[in-house]
Write a structure and sequence with these properties.
The complex is a heterodimer of chains A (about 110) and B (about 120). With about 110 residues, chain A is mainly beta. Chain A is built from no helices and nine strands. Chain B has about 120 residues and is an all-beta fold. Helix content of chain B is about 0%, strand content about 55%. The chains are: A mainly beta (about 110), B mainly beta (about 120). Chains A and B meet through strand 7 and strand 8 of A and strand 5 and strand 10 of B.
């Protein structure tokens, strides 16, 4: 099963908003409500930001939001802060006959 | 506080075996599915394997199917990954991960243990 497609890098200024896309297919993002997003800082364990396409776990800032349109998922970060500079990965369930789970290639966010 | 601590990584020759362990605390282990997810600078994140709370369901990525076996011991709050027939492309940081509910997302991650497969 092919990886989901994310932009390799994005950048935006502090205080602004940015949206990261994650494109899959009708076999993953378009088929299941099990789309999630993760934040990775160097040397730290990955952090779950979004599950079930749009839901935030307890403790995750409301500056992080997500949506889906067809086979593409989106992560939006508003009011960018320096600590948001990190790598972001999307993931989707793909079914037990299709490798179970797939990740995107990751997006490096630079906060200017 | 939820904690997941992996161990068992190391340098191993191609074709050899390795067993990873993960001891957890801070939550009711047998209430949750668990996963192994690996990370490399080149490929990013890759789901490796998952197991349901009662071991009734297991799953594997195509890249490791037939070579890796996931298991758990709920009495010991422990998750395992038996890796055989290791290949250089298995070189990665392996994370033990607590499921969010039941196969819906990767909620809490351990720091990982490094596996290096090289002659």
């Amino acid at each position: 099963h092919s990886a989901l497609t994310q932009p390799a890098s994005v950048s935006e200024s502090r205080g602004q908003s940015i949206t990261i896309s994650c494109t899959g297919s009708g076999s993953d993002i378009g088929a299941y409500n099990f789309v999630s997003w993760y934040q990775l800082h160097p040397g730290k364990a990955p952090k779950l930001l979004i599950f079930a396409v749009t839901k935030r776990p307890s403790g995750v800032s409301t500056r992080f939001s997500a949506s889906r349109s067809g086979n593409t998922a989106f992560l939006t970060i508003s009011g960018l802060q320096a600590e948001d500079e990190a790598d972001y990965y999307c993931s989707s369930f793909t079914g037990s006959d299709n490798g179970f789970w797939v990740f995107g290639g990751g997006t490096k966010l630079t906060v200017l | 506080e939820v904690q997941l601590v992996e161990s068992g990584g190391g340098l191993v020759q191609p074709g050899r075996s390795l067993r990873l362990s993960c001891v957890v605390s801070g939550f009711t282990f047998d209430d949750y599915a668990m996963h192994w997810v690996r990370q490399t600078p080149e490929q990013g994140l890759e789901w490796v394997s998952g197991i349901s709370w009662n071991s009734g369901t297991t799953g594997y990525a195509d890249s490791v199917k037939g070579r890796f076996t996931i298991s758990r011991d709920n009495a010991k709050n422990s998750l395992y990954l038996q890796m055989t027939g290791l290949r250089p492309e298995d070189t990665a940081l392996y994370h033990c991960v607590k499921d969010h509910r039941e196969w819906d997302a990767f909620h809490v991650w351990g720091q990982g243990t490094v596996v290096t497969v090289s002659p």
